[in-house]
Design a protein that fits this description.
By secondary structure, this protein is an alpha/beta fold. The chain has a domain at about 15-120: Rossmann fold, CATH 3.40.50. The protein has 9 helices and 4 strands, in the order H-E-H-H-E-H-H-E-H-E-H-H-H. A 4-stranded parallel beta sheet has the order 2-1-3-4, sandwiched between helices. Helix 6 links the parallel strand 3 and strand 4. Helix 5 (about 70-90) crosses helix 6 (about 100-110). The longest helix has 18 residues, at about 70-90.
């Protein structure tokens, strides 16, 4: 998904929310598939979005499939480290491309009482582009109408 969107000719976003975002590398995406640059480059193309690199972005958050269920103490340590690094960035939004990571990081941020949202990069893209505009553009240009339809509630 990130590679496809990174290489696409997307129109400029309509909105300017001046977001401060940090990116969490999902283990499988970065270590197994080698996808690190594309999600960041995609986010950096959005106007009004400041991407702040966090320390240990490529380190596991502790979710790792069911690792947090099998090894709760070690997973909790990894989560607390990730939450600390997120806090240090000053970001108000975390981009995470893995549902397990997203849920686990959300839980950690909630427990730390940090008002930081966690969204998939495609969700951020859709919000910044404007959902209706995004759907109309994809359909009119013949680009992934099923994907565009899925992005629009």
């Amino acid at each position: 998904m990130h590679e496809l969107l990174y290489e696409s000719d997307l129109p400029d976003p309509k909105r300017d929310d001046s977001l401060c975002v940090t990116y969490h590398d999902a283990c499988h995406l970065v270590h197994a598939q080698g996808i690190r640059h594309q999600p960041r480059a995609l986010l950096q193309r959005l106007s009004g979005l400041k991407l702040v690199e966090m320390e240990g972005a490529e380190m596991c958050c502790g979710s790792a499939g069911i690792y947090n269920l099998l090894q709760p103490r070690l997973a909790r340590d990894a989560l607390q480290r990730k939450v600390r690094h997120i806090r240090e960035t000053g970001a108000t939004l975390v981009a995470s491309a893995n549902p397990g990571c997203t849920l686990w990081i959300r839980q950690g941020l909630r427990e730390a009482e940090l008002p930081i949202e966690v969204l998939h990069p495609v969700e951020i893209l859709a919000k910044r582009m404007g959902s209706c505009h995004n759907k109309a553009y994809a359909v009119s240009e013949g680009r992934a109408p099923a994907l565009a339809a899925a992005l629009v509630p």
